[in-house]
Q: What sequence folds into this?
């Protein structure tokens, strides 16, 4: 009888542990919210045609899978109005958190406010909506990184030159911060003059057209800065078509095409952002918020200067993006 009692007790104990594990994981071992629902992260991406955003998407999906959360993705294709509707759909579906990369400055605050009304926490990445920040903002320290890039340009050009700037979407966080940091560096070199400055909206084809016009109007341009690698590549193509003396061309982002262009000398330098790390941090921050942990309002990462003289580092970053 005593042996039978011990066996029965053991069986009850095992069943209790199994029930507890099933309740926590909902049978599939997945992460759940405090009320027992599966964790679903809505990832609202600005434009999946850009390698930068694809890197974040891949990282978010891999990290969420590792931690037992589900991810649903929307692609705004660069359109703010589309993104507002996509995030409203996330809200209707009752996602647990939203990782939000605004498609532009216009209407960027609308989704954050809508999600807040629905009590869904928002983590913003790369771009932070003015007046309506999320629970945490994760990005590169674009001011410091652009200042470092500008200082490198100043040194390479001996503090003299005629500069053309191809800007990103005006008013977005990276455009504003990159402009600010590079301008700070130029204050130490009054001999470098900005002779042309126009938006190309992060797009390579538009940058090519804009750069052609810049070079036609100012043939003496000898420095070209694309505030993203795609625009630097467009500028490089235009410079090659225009001919003339070699121009110093720099970008920003460290996407795969940009790093390959630096390695082969098509562009001279870029700032490599820790894109994969941003994605992992966004997932961790989402889950911390759901677990009622305190998270920093701002999480800024350094970017790494990559020049055409650093082929080994380029190979390393291309193989495994930071």
A:
């Amino acid at each position: 009888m005593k042996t039978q009692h011990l066996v029965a007790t053991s069986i009850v104990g095992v069943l209790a542990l199994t029930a507890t594990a099933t309740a926590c994981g909902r049978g599939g071992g997945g992460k759940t919210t405090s009320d027992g629902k599966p964790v679903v992260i809505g990832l609202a991406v600005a434009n999946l045609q850009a390698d930068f955003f694809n890197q974040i998407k891949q990282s978010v999906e891999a990290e969420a899978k590792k931690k037992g959360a589900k991810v649903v993705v929307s692609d705004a294709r660069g359109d703010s109005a589309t993104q507002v509707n996509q995030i409203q759909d996330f809200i209707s579906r009752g996602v647990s958190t939203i990782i939000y990369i605004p498609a532009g400055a216009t209407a960027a605050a609308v989704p954050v406010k809508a999600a807040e009304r629905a009590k869904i926490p928002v983590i913003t990445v790369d771009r932070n909506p003015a007046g309506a920040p999320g629970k945490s903002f994760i990005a590169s320290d674009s001011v410091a990184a652009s200042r470092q890039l500008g200082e490198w340009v100043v040194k390479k050009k001996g503090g003299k030159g005629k500069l053309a700037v191809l800007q990103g979407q005006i008013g977005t966080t990276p455009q504003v911060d990159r402009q600010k940091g590079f301008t700070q560096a130029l204050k130490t070199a009054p001999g470098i003059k900005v002779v042309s400055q126009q938006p190309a909206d992060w797009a390579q084809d538009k940058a090519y057209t804009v750069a052609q016009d810049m070079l036609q109007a100012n043939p003496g341009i000898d420095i070209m800065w694309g505030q993203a690698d795609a625009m630097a590549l467009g500028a490089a193509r235009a410079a090659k078509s225009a001919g003339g003396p070699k121009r110093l061309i720099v970008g920003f982002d460290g996407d795969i095409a940009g790093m390959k262009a630096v390695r082969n000398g098509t562009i001279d330098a870029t700032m490599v952002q820790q894109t994969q790390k941003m994605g992992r941090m966004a997932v961790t921050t989402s889950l911390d918020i759901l677990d009622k942990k305190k998270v920093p309002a701002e999480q800024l990462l350094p970017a790494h200067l990559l020049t055409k003289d650093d082929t080994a580092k380029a190979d390393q970053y291309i193989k495994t993006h930071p």
